[in-house]
Amino acid sequence: MPADERFAVRRESARASVPRPLAAAPAPAGVPLPPGLALRGRLATGARRPETLRGSGRGGSGSRTPGSGRGGGPRRAYERARRAWDRPLTAYYVILGSSLLITVLGLVMVYSASMIKALDISKPATYFFGKQFLAAVIGGGLMLIAARMPVKLHRGLAYPMLMVTVFLMVLVQVPGIGMSVNGNQNWLYLGGPFQLQPSEFGKLALILWGADLLARKQDKRLLTQWKHMLVPLVPVAFMLLGLIMLGGDMGTAIILTAILFGLLWLAGAPTRLFAGVLGFAAVLTFLLIRTSPNRMSRLACMGVSEPDPEGGCWQAAHGIYALASGGWFGSGLGASVEKWGQLPEPHTDFIFAITGEELGLAGTLSVLALFAALGYAGIRVAGRTEDPFVRYAAGGVTTWITAQAVINIGAVLGLLPIAGVPLPLFSYGGSALLPTMFAVGLMIAFAREDPAAKAALAMRKPGVRWKTMRRRVKKRSSGER
Question: Is the dihedral of CA 164, 169, 173, 178 positive or negative?
């Protein structure tokens, strides 16, 4: 017998040996089948299964699909948002997106708030915007470099950056080299219209150096002793604070103190030790404010609604006027009244007030939401890593940006004294923008170093997805069709 005929005979015998479904056989006349057997028979013979079974539930209503009914929509939306937030690349995209949006919106507001100021000093209307745009381009390059640098290289920059920053801060106090702006001796002249404030880079230097120091001590299990936790971190931080206070910049000193306490908190400082250092800093701050009439006058301007007859609290009162006149959606971009000489420093310390006047409550809440997203993503990066250096550095950067934003916005709202610190990534000032954008790139690099994020980014490379899918396909034998 030929081979094809033998194959056909075997196939027919195999089909005959397979038992037919029980429900496929015709039921005897007058004998009803049980409900379950009848249902299985209809499914086996190809009958369509009903989508909903009537008579289930109360009152004979049909079965409910998942998510239907009262509260199903919000619950499903919450679950989707929670699953989206738990994805490996969420922190990476939130940090990148929120920082870029803050910077772009800041450029728009710097241009709008500084036009009248530039014309008042006989400069083109785009004078301050051009300088800020150049700083943003350079800062974008620094952010890209920092985002692509490995963590080991960031740790290697800690000591050189600290030494260079201390040298520049000492150079500021040398007569003839340092410059005084608004009563603060904190600037270096670079030529032309460009100046540099080394104390802004001191924040980044303290974070990198402090994170590297605490990480090495944690690896050696030395942070359980209070002397290793405080020395040399606190003395070096107080040295930087002393150099800053020699120039009279109380606002930057407050931010640096917040960074120091953030690092100590992340290192697990005991409550008594933390309270002791905090109490010493509070007493020192009180003495510095009490002995300075300028700082006392700023403290007295908290919560004022109108300036004094002698002109005191002028800036604080007009900041409130700008916010109050904005309404829900503002007077329109470029239509601010307070920037026409009424509000001092409209493009630097009080740019948030001009934002509220031109963009209204919607604009200010958008800025607050972007800063909240950036801070929460930084906390996520610091909380999910196993590397102690990444945890300390990410926590320090988050403390820096969040504390500075709170102090600036609180001063504009009249809830805090006017400290003279810019709004991060938003206010005018290249010296503040450059280290902040580098710090954002630092957090992006840390978000990319997460193992799950690395795997997700690797899957997005060209060709990787196709190769992975090919590996998942089970190889068939040569005779199988």
Answer: positive
Is pTM, for the whole model, over 0.85? Answer: no
Please tell me the distance from the alpha carbon of residue 202 to that of residue 231, in angstroms, as a whole number.
Answer: 19
To which residue do tokens 């934002």 refer? Answer: 355
Return all residues near 325 (Cβ < 8 A) that are at least 6 apart.
Answer: 331, 337, 338, 357
Classify residue 200 by burial, with Cβ atoms within 10 Å: 0-12, 13-18, 19+.
buried
Close Cβ partners of 251 (under 8 Å, ≥ 6 residues apart): 407, 419, 420, 421
Name the nearest CA neighbour of 203 among 437, 41, 462: 437
Residues 6+ apart with CB under 8 A from 399: 258, 259, 261, 262, 263
Say how many C-beta atoms besides its own lie within 10 A of residue 5's C-beta: 9
Over the stretch 275-296, which tens digit does the pLDDT of each residue have? Answer: 887 888 888 888 888 888 888 8
**What secondary structure does DSSP assign to 84-99, as a single string?**
HHTSTTHHHHHHHHHH
pLDDT digit string, tens, across residues 412-436: 999 999 888 999 999 999 999 999 9
